[in-house]
Description:
The complex is a heterodimer of chains A (about 250) and B (about 290). Chain A is of the alpha+beta class and about 250 residues long. Helix content of chain A is about 35%, strand content about 10%. Chain A has two domains: about 5-110, Beta-grasp domain (Ubiquitin-like (UB roll)); about 120-250, Fumarate Reductase Iron-sulfur Protein, Chain B, domain 2, CATH 1.10.1060.10. Chain A is built from eight helices and seven strands; from the N terminus they run ββαβββββααααααα. In chain A, α3 (about 145-155) packs antiparallel against α5, α5 packs antiparallel against α6 and α6 (about 195-210) crosses α8 (about 230-250). The longest helix of chain A has 20 residues, at about 230-250. The N and C termini of chain A lie far apart (about 65 Å). By secondary structure, chain B is an all-alpha fold. Chain B has one domain (about 55-130, about 145-285): 3 helical TM bundles of succinate and fumarate reductases, CATH 1.20.1300. Chain B has helices at about 5-25, 35-55, 55-80, 90-100, 100-130, 150, 155-175, 195-200, 210-215, 220-250, 255-285, and strands at about 185, 205-210. Chain B has a two-stranded antiparallel sheet. In chain B, α2 (about 35-55) packs across α3. The N and C termini of chain B lie far apart (about 75 Å). Chains A and B meet through α6, α7 and α8 of A and α2, α3, α5 and α10 of B.
Amino acid sequence: MNFTLKIWRQKDANSVGRFVEVSARGIRPEMSFLEMLDVVNDEVTQAGGEPVAFDHDCREGICGACSLVINGEPHGPNEKATTCQVYMRSFRDGETITVEPFRARAFPVLKDLVADRSAFDRIIQAGGFVSVNTGQAPEANAAPIGKEVAEKAFDSAACIGCGACVAACKNSSAMLFVGAKIAHLGRLPQGQPERAQRARAMVARMDAEGFGNCTNQYECQAVCPKGVTVANIAWMNRDYLAASLKKIFTG
Amino acid sequence: MGVPRGARDTLGKLPEKLLRRGKHLLAFPLRGRGLIFQTARGFVFMKTLWQLLRSSLGRKYLMAATGLLLVGFVVVHMLGNLKAFSGADALNHYAHLLKSRAWALWVFRAGLLAIALVHVGCGITLALENRRARPQPYVRLKTIQASVASLSMLGSGLVVGAFVLFHVLHLTVQVGGFQEYAKLKSPIADAPGILQALAPVEPGRSYPDVYEMIVHAFSVPWIVLVYLVGVGALGLHLSHGFQSVFQTLGWRSDAAGPFLTGLARVLALAIVLGMASVPAAVLCGFLR
């Protein structure tokens, strides 16, 4: 298969970027999108050019490192798949594919297709610690957690922090990510001691990082590779309100 | 005797716990002894309240709460409008009730204005932040499933705001060419009922003739067009706004989502039909 790629090239964080057309020739349909970029980079390097920089790590859809907005969709056209799990058979032979980095003020582009998503790390840091006894692994039945609760907490915990929610949001809001993180620990008994403090600190950090505000359009849920739903945002809305009122009235 | 020991302990402790918590909340300003302690508490109180209201979520809560109150007003307003179909006396008597206590009218108007200003103020600051949050736009960003209504909230809101301004100048303040409306007066036939009990009318006295006013006003096609556009924008705004309230206040679950979406659309359609019916009926000659 052959493709024409319209790729965003940007020298560094302080430069102005632009689109460059690159042709990808002899691509096999079972190659992933990232493998296709590897082939393109091989050719670019052999021709003495600078390879296209892009984020990747595990390449099996669980680490959250890969990004890219492909033809206007974060992680490309497939539902519930990261870019590394999108295969070239999903595109038409000869198609022109637009490849952009995730764009948000809180995710500045460092080079080409690499956006700095460390704002997410700082939100996680703001969440602080969870009180867990150290030492031996706890006895499995010591903290009884209902099936329903465990499943819901796991659904929230499925978030891999890739940032597709921010990339897809018309407002660059990070509320699906923050909601998932707050709900994940907030649903479990281990998360209760610091629950209110964590909700307030993570929302404050999110605001400080310059993300936009949710307008309930739910585009984030539509592109999330892990199927994290906007019920997590509702959870965050409820938890943050309760935490704030608790702080206001009880100090 | 039949109650197990553990349960009895819990039951016994429950009222005490509630009492303690209640005291905690009510006695908050008096907690602690020293002036310094109380000043510090007051400071924490104000600071946390300010943090809440200034945060992204805090302003979203304000949007939701004020939006819900404004929806309530719109529904009552619409039901009031429909009195036009019960005849001139019914509508005029209802209008007389609303204006019969000047202090209540002005308290209500001030409250409504304050609620609207909070809603608009929060909406505009949030929207400006959203613009700033993506300085370099995409050349291409697909819209996967977001509704037209959800994408045009700022636009539909501004149209509704402009329409409300026009509507108030037109039928409430009656500026410019609309001053003639104030001269329309007629007696109201004395009908026993709740209206007469709340705001009695005297036989032989003349009251503002609201019915005649709307017949005059909506006989002009361009004015009807303005009203239909304004009401249409309101319907679009509410079809997304009303369901958003539940998400923002944390009352929406994944299972309830489609129901709430449907509910908001039904409500929006009902409001559009109810509101548009009076001007349309006048223009078509059903009301005269």
